[in-house]
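stage 2 :: seqdesign
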């Protein structure tokens, strides 16, 4: 069975191209800044290129930042960021500003990050790669999204119609593929995304240790999930199985995020603590999905 699973994972991996992730992450993102004076401009530039980044990275970031009126600024920038003091003058705290314009509040800079990512979801990966302040939020969203995909997939393989679009993952799923193989390869995709968001090398060769660790870990949580399904009658083990899929993916994501951010992953003790928290969150996510599925079934019967 182990050999069969490894063959399935290898087959699925052939459908997953890290080049697509690299291309998405390396997309240039241009930002035009709007402020009253040079000190305000400098403060905004320091936000996008914090003091802790290397000189090389700061020079790269500066290439994407433009001040209003800069002759080199692109005619159609991806984002416009306006200092809050100026926004109060021209648009009532930014409420009436043109689309694509976001307010920088030095007291609450996280609002800018979340506002941009909500409105410009397609820019999340390149923003994180280019601008360090976006990395934590983008990484957390990536971890939760892939964890949720894996939880839903674990349910979708057993409960028809639970999530009509879930099988349309960003890579082709070969026929007769076990759910363990699919969930494992989706974790590998998460590793690519997290590395790209952290401005780290992306690829099978570049991330061979991480990929090997993900594949090795698949056997452990598959055995745990199967054990639960077998012990709980009438399919009741499906919900814990899906919660395990969420938790296992989440903990792997948190460890990868630490690795790419600090150079080392979670310790065994930290993994255990993260797993407990992730299982609680996984049960909530899976419970909400299952309840929605039951409601759709009830309406369909009526």
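stage 2 :: out
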């Amino acid at each position: 069975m182990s050999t069969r699973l490894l063959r399935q994972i290898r087959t699925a991996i052939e459908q997953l191209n890290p080049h697509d992730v690299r291309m998405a992450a390396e997309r240039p993102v241009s930002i035009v800044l709007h402020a009253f004076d040079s000190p305000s401009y400098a403060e905004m530039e320091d936000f996008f290129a914090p003091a802790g980044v290397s000189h090389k990275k700061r020079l790269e970031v500066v290439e994407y930042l433009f001040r209003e009126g800069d002759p080199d600024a692109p005619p159609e920038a991806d984002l416009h960021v306006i200092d809050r003091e100026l926004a109060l003058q021209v648009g009532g705290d930014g409420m009436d500003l043109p689309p694509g314009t976001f307010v920088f509040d030095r007291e609450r800079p996280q609002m800018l990050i979340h506002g941009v990512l909500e409105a410009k979801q397609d820019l999340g990966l390149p923003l994180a790669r280019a601008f360090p302040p976006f990395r934590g939020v983008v990484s957390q969203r990536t971890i939760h999204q892939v964890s949720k995909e894996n939880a839903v997939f674990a349910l979708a393989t057993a409960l028809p119609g639970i999530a009509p679009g879930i099988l349309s993952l960003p890579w082709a799923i070969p026929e007769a593929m076990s759910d363990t193989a699919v969930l494992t390869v989706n974790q590998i995709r998460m590793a690519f995304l997290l590395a790209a968001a952290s401005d780290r090398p992306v690829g099978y060769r570049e991330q061979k240790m991480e990929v090997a660790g993900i594949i090795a870990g698949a056997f452990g949580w598959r055995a745990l999930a199967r054990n639960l399904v077998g012990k709980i009658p009438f399919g009741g083990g499906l919900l814990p199985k899906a919660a395990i899929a969420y938790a296992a993916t989440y903990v792997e994501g948190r460890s990868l995020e630490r690795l790419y951010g600090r150079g080392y992953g979670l310790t065994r003790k930290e993994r255990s603590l993260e797993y407990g928290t992730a299982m609680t969150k996984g049960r909530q996510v899976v419970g909400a999905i299952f309840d929605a599925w039951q409601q759709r079934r009830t309406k369909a019967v009526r």
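stage 3 :: structure notes
- The first strand starts at residue 31 and ends at 34.
- The two ends are 43 Å apart (CA to CA).
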